[in-house]
Amino acid sequence: MGIAARLRAGGANASVALTLATATLPLTSCAGVANTGPEAVAAPFSDGGVAVSVRVQSRDDGLRVLADLRPERAGFHVYSLALPDGGVDGIGIPTRIRTEGALRPAGPATTDARERVLRPEGLDVRLPVYQNGRVTLELPVRRVEGTDRASVFLTYGACSEREGCLPPVRDRAVTLQLRPAG
């Protein structure tokens, strides 16, 4: 798929337009150029006091599902991937990401977010959470033939040391329409 440019003859504007059109040709041609853009992007949403965006990205080492989770209230932290199933003494919900349909996991979910220990006021527990701010989960996936639709399921929650915990979100489904394979 190429870009059609309409150029006016003469003057500096024509030179600038020609330069811009020429510069975009290698980015839009189909011959031998690796696609580095997202394979699919879901509409962002907010649930359980956490803003979420999900996308699938192609990298040199394969496909990745990237999910950004950002607590909407100051002082709240997303629970860690390391939090055990069932929480600690029944408190907390572990962060999880999984896929179905056209994308299947090819390894465990990871994040480069820094972990810390949260001690909710009035409770005798230590909960692994991530530092303040956005947490990006990264799940390596492989593409399954036969469909271009994938579902990403997210489980997460956020907690504060002084203001308690927000309602947990369990298996929130996000549907992605992938570009056709090939």
Give the arrangement of secondary structure elements:
Elements: H1 11-28, E1 38-41, E2 45-47, E3 50-59, E4 62-71, E5 77-78, E6 96-101, E7 103-105, E8 115-118, E9 127-130, E10 135-143, E11 149-156, E12 158-160, E13 164-165, E14 169-177
Antiparallel strand pairs: 1-3, 2-3, 3-4, 4-10, 5-12, 6-11, 7-10, 8-9, 11-14, 12-13
Structural summary, described in words:
The protein is mainly β and 182 residues long. Helices cover 10% and strands 42% of the residues. It has one helix and 14 strands; from the N terminus they run H-E-E-E-E-E-E-E-E-E-E-E-E-E-E. The protein has one helix at 11-28, and strands spanning 38-41, 45-47, 50-59, 62-71, 77-78, 96-101, 103-105, 115-118, 127-130, 135-143, 149-156, 158-160, 164-165, 169-177. Strands 1, 2, 3, 4, 7 and 10 form a six-stranded antiparallel sheet that branches. Strand 12 and strand 13 form a beta hairpin. The longest helix is centred in the N-terminal third of the chain and has 18 residues, at 11-28. The radius of gyration is 22 Å and the shape is elongated. The protein starts with 10 loop residues before the first helix and ends in a 5-residue tail after the last strand.
Features:
182 residues; mainly beta; six-stranded antiparallel sheet; three-stranded antiparallel sheet; 14 strands; disordered N terminus
Instruction: Name the shape in a single word.
Output: elongated
Termini gap: 15 Å
**Structural class given helices, strands, pairing?**
mainly beta
Spans of at least 5 consecutive residues whose pLDDT stays below 50 are 1-35
Total helical segments: 1
Roughly how many Å is the radius of gyration? 22 Å
Average pLDDT, to the nearest integer? 83
Strand content: 35-45%
Strand element count = 14
Largest sheet: 6 strands, antiparallel
What is the H/E string?
HEEEEEEEEEEEEEE
Helix fraction, binned, reads under 10%
